Amino acid sequence: MSAPNPSAWWLPLASAARFDDAAPLAAEHLGEPVVLWRDGETPVAFADRCPHRGARLSLGCVRERTLECPYHGWRFDAGGLCRLIPALPAFTPPDGHRVAIWQVREAFDLLWVAAEGAPGAEPHAPPSLEQLPPRRVLCGPFDVATSAPRVVENFLDTAHFGLVHEGGLGDRAHLEVPDYEVAHDALGRPGVPHYRAWQPKASAAASKGTWVDYRYQLLSPFSALLEKRAQGAMPHEAYALWSSPTGDESCRAWFTIFVDDGAPDDATLIGFQQRIFAQDKPIVESQRPRRLPLAGGELHSAADRLSGAYRRWLRQLGIEHGCC
C-alpha cells in the first residue's frame, strides 16, 4: 500500500489545548509550510503562503474570523476565499482569489493536518483506538534532533531496556530478548501481538518489579502503539507515540498515555514518561546517520525482528522522508 504523495499522510502539528485562537501558528508538513488558525472554535489549516505576493500568512493575524496577510492585509475566510483587499475596499474578490487549504482534524488532543484529497481512514488518518482505556493524558511535545523513523524504531525496540532504562523498564539481569513473532494487521502494518519482559518499574503506578505482557502495533509510518498488561494489580495501560517530521533529520514527538481512571494523577504519569524519554533522547540523537537506513548500512540480529519489519514496511510504502 502506498500513499499517493507525502502530503496524503495525516500528521500531528500542534497540541490542541495550547493552540492560541488569537494568533496563527506556523508549522510544517513533510517540508510544506502550513499555517494553523481558529475560526471561532474550528481549527483551520492553509498553505503558509499568500497567493497575492507569497508572504507567510503565519506572520499575520486573525481578524473578524478571517486570517489577514501581514503584507497587504488580504483577508481569507475558513474556506480559503479572499473576503477583503484593503487597497480596494469596494472590490469583491472573485472565487479564484483563494489560498490553498489543508484538511485538519482534532484527535488525541492534537491537531492533525493533511492535504486536500488525502485519505480519511487508517493508516493515513489518525486511528480510532476505541479499545484502549478511556482516560487520556498527553505528554509533550519533545523536539528531537533525529529523524522521525529513528524515534519510532526506538519506541519499538526492547533490547535497550536493561541498559538505557536500567532500574525502570529493565535491568541487566534480564537483557535477553525472548523469541517473538511479528504479525501484520488487516492494513499490512507490522506489530508484535505478544512480548513478555521483566520490568523493575513498568509504569508510574508500579511499586515493585513484575513480568509485563506487551503488544506493539505500527499505526502509520510515524506513529506506533504499545499496550501493557502486568501480573497483579497494575492497570491496563497503553502508550501511543505520535512523531511529526520537522525536517529529514529532526522531528517533534508526543505521547498519549491511555489509563484507567484509578491510575495516578496526570502530573505523575507525565513525569514518568518524561523521565523515560529523557533517557532515550541522547541515545537516538547520537545515532548516525540520523536518517533511518532502509537498504543496508547497519547490522541486524533476531532481536531486531520488529525493526526489520518496520523498515521493510517503510520501503513498501515508498516513504523517503527521514530515511536513507
Write the layout of secondary structure elements.
Blueprint: E1 11-15, E2 25-29, E3 32-39, E4 42-47, E5 61-63, E6 66-68, E7 75-76, E8 82-84, E9 101-107, E10 110-115, E11 135-144, H1 148-156, H2 161-164, E12 183-184, E13 190-199, E14 210-220, E15 223-230, E16 237-247, E17 250-259, H3 266-286, H4 305-317
Summarize the structure in words:
A hairpin with a 5-residue loop joins strand 7 and strand 8. The protein is built from 4 helices and 17 strands. With 324 residues, the protein is α+β, with helices and mostly antiparallel strands. The mean pLDDT is 93. Helix content is 15%, strand content 34%. The longest helix is centred in the last third of the chain and has 21 residues, at 266-286. The strands form 3 sheets. A 7-stranded antiparallel beta sheet has the order 11-17-16-15-14-13-12, covered by helices on one side. A 6-stranded antiparallel beta sheet has the order 1-10-9-4-3-2, with no helix packed on it. The protein has 2 domains: 6-115, Rieske Iron-sulfur Protein (3-layer Sandwich); 135-317, Naphthalene 1,2-dioxygenase Alpha Subunit, Chain A, domain 1, CATH 3.90.380.10.
